[in-house]
């Protein structure tokens, strides 16, 4: 079994824009400033990567506005998926409301954004006036919420921008950076991330580890391809994938193709309670345990919302930290 690489935290990672993480040394770092320890929380004989993670450290340090651009100080978003980019730009404190149901903010964005007032799909004028936005960010999928905001008559002179959250998460992030007057800072944040991802791949010799992705949903077990968010981050790091998993689309795993899920290491995840129940059945089955990686205790569980949710740079750092912590690890108990 490959020896686990010693990894250390980048104390200033999320405080100083992560630029310190782009050095040329051989030390792996994560944002919380502490030595990475082996995860002991387990499910179905599999260690959970990042269990107990402190999400209060997710959002990055504030960024500077571009010269000559207006700096928005009060922002409303109509789609919780936009919050990731604002978090990565250090603009969390400027977000004053979201037009969504309570509980819509992804947990990984932490208490700063989790506590933002949720105005619902049809906010009333008084709530909008209290938020007093100077910028409203929307998406094509939430155009009706933008219309509801406008219909209150309380937006005043607030600027609006519609962001297309397509498959290219880096382009979406750049669009949010541009809408908030931070194009230069946005480019710098992406450069910092890709530089660190490349360095992590080199330090951990990622190209010589074949890693499989298996996702349990309530209805089926999926052998993932290259299009999911976690798979894209692994590609930036340079992690190799088994030959059957080098196409974009996921395929349903069954008794005839279960061997396609095998690799040096398998990351599994569970979508909701139904996925968790399915995962427990599969992970304890004879067919699964007969595969190479399970028999070598080389199966680890990762967060489904991070690896398969609507992606962004803030989530990208957390996925990268999962890889730092676990790429050379195992699911063996202590």
TrEMBL record:
Predominant subcellular localization, coarse grouping: other
Name used for this protein in its record: Iron complex transport system substrate-binding protein
Organism from which the protein derives: Gordonia humi
Domain Fe/B12 periplasmic-binding intervals: 74-331
GO CC annotations, alphabetized: outer membrane-bounded periplasmic space
Top-level taxon in the UniProt lineage: Bacteria
Subcellular location: Cell envelope
Signal sequence segment: 1-22
Assigned keywords, A-Z: Signal, Transport
Coiled coil region boundaries: none
Family of this protein: Belongs to the bacterial solute-binding protein 8 family.
